[in-house]
Amino acid sequence: MADLLNPNEKFDLITRNLQEVLGEEKVKQILQERELKVYWGTATTGKPHVAYFVPMSKIADFLKAGCEVTILFADLHAYLDNMKAPWELLELRVKYYEQVIKAMLESIGVPLDKLKFVKGTDYQLSREYTLDVYRLSSMVTEHDAKKAGAEVVKQVEHPLLSGLLYPGLQALDEEYLKVDAQFGGVDQRKIFTLAEKYLPTLGYGKRAHLMNPMVPGLTGAKMSSSEEESKIDLLDSKENVKKKLKKAFCEPGNIQNNGVLSFVKYVLFPLHGDFCVKKDPKWGGDKVYTDFDEVEKDFAAEVIHPGDLKASVEVALNKLLEPIRKKFEAPELRKLTNSAYPDPSKNKSVGKGAKAGGGGGGGGGGDDDELVPSKLDIRVGKVVSVEKHPDADSLYLEKIDVGEPEPRTVVSGLVAYVAAEDLQDRMVLVLCNLKPQKMRGIESQAMLLCASIEGEPRRVEPLDPPEGSSPGERVFVEGYETSKPDDRLNPKKKVWEKIQVDLKMSDECVAQWKDKLLMTKLGQITCKTLKGGNIS
Fold first, then answer.
1. Per residue, what are the HEC states of 310-366?
2. Do residues 442 and 483 make contact, with C-beta atoms less than 8 angstroms apart?
3. How far is 158 from 118, CA to CA, in rounded Å?
4. pLDDT in the model for residue 367
5. Alpha-carbon gap, residue 536 to 530, rounded angstroms
6. How far apart, in whole angstroms, are the C-alpha atoms of residue 63 and residue 178?
7. How far apart are CA 226 and CA 47, in angstroms?
8. Torsion of CA 295, 298, 301, 303, to 10 degrees
9. Comparing C-alpha atoms, which of 113, 102, 115, 165 is closest to residue 136?
10. Furthest CA-CA distance within the chain
11. What's the EC number here (predicted)?
């Protein structure tokens, strides 16, 4: 097809449905001379879901326009992003991503022989790349690095240095993959502008950047691998697809933040060029649309009922998913899936000194390495006193009753967010089994847990236990009620940091670990206003 297109037609195909293009003139100039070289990278973290069909359909456009396309499996980035992918699972996650992404491309008819697949650690650990990372880190300010990753890198109260490296590495990938343009979501815009600013300082060329819009998930917010209800997994059964679409946000006449309608626009129309809305004959029967604007117009006018839209998307989506499901019925791919994404409630690590497959007593402490939320000793606490830290105006010194003979001393950075009088006598949540840490000369014996949202200004709120809670009551994640917490979390294994990555507030301000609720015997843990906030 590319041979039949002139440069302007290629540009239109490359840029259709994109939200923004940085460097349009550069792209047009290259197309006058040769084919465009583009790369799309994906960090190998959570399981890819159906929203990945959005970039896949654009990759199909790139190939139709004659582009040379590279897909980067960014395994090192997955680890740097607050350890979203444990080091020991990186290789398995890459293999899973490669299999599932190829299956997706095959399901939409993209020829794999036109694509180049690259693993990040194949070149990112080289001497030359490593030296460029050091060179770049001597130029990029901490402010610029943090700002660049704000919408992509997991935001936590105490960020790791690795998260600051992430945007710079993504910038360097453009040079080391020898491309003209990078393609990604508009949430990566700040990383793209960092690349445009700093690559020339290393003597490398400035690339163009092609940005997809962020497609709403089934709940109306961004579709996320870590939010079970916001996404449809690529291996979900037909029954699960039906159930999740039935619960999806799709208000009659509302075309804003409508994940079902967005899927039609950004996936089904680019792939097929039309969309069939299936309706009962007594309501006019099926109608085939060849223009998305007409679908949107009819939905806004309530000519298309949400139930009919969902049912029609269900049919089209299952056609895309069926070859992927079939491929992953193979025993070796089932094994790969379970190994790359082990069930934390079932996965038991073999302890040091234990014989794999050996019977008998002991086992060498396999449970010690199991990353499950029941390791955390989170309790309801009552703030019995609060005052400024004697040596730091930005810190509070609190005494919190956690159901022990004496209150625990807690040092927190809440001065800028909560007035002392609002903390006094307040019921809060406290993590009690961290190693005590001195903060400006005073030992903090626990951590007061809060919800937070990064931005200008940053917003922080203490978590609220259910009304009627008492100091010392245990907080647990549903499904882990009977397990006992560790006496003390091992700081060397970063247990808290790894579990904390998946703690967040839902859109209803309810605390969750992954898709499971944080609770006491009286009910759910909540915050007042910080929807979608992180917990730390």
1. HHHHHHHHHHHHHHHHHHCCCHHHHHHHHHHCCCCCCCCCCCCCCCCCCCCCCCCCH
2. no
3. 32
4. 38
5. 13
6. 17
7. 9
8. -130
9. 165
10. 81
11. 6.1.1.1
**Most confident among 101-110, 244-253, 479-488 (mean pLDDT):** 101-110
Distance CA 90, CA 74 (A): 10
Tokens of residue 22, six digits: 């940085």
* Identity of the residue numbered 403: G
Query: Which residues, 6+ apart, have CB-to-CB distance to 5 below 8 Å?
Result: 13, 65, 66
> Locate tokens 């917010």: which residue?
221
- Report the SS3 class of residue 431: strand
Distance of alpha carbon 339 from alpha carbon 175, whole angstroms: 33
DSSP letter (8 states) at residue 6: -
pLDDT tens-digit readout, 173-231: 999 999 999 999 998 999 999 999 999 999 999 999 999 988 877 665 555 554 555 57
Query: What distance in Å separates the CA atoms of residue 414 and residue 448, rounded to the nearest whole number?
Result: 9
Say if residues 165 and 133 touch (Cβ distance below 8 Å).
yes
Structure token digits, residue 458: 């940053």
| Choice among 200-204, 226-230, 292-296, 474-478 with the minimum mean pLDDT | 226-230
| Size (the chain), residues | 536
pLDDT digits (tens, 9 = 90+) for 19-54: 999 999 999 999 999 999 999 999 888 888 898 999
Q: CA–CA separation, 1 vs 242, rounded Å?
A: 36
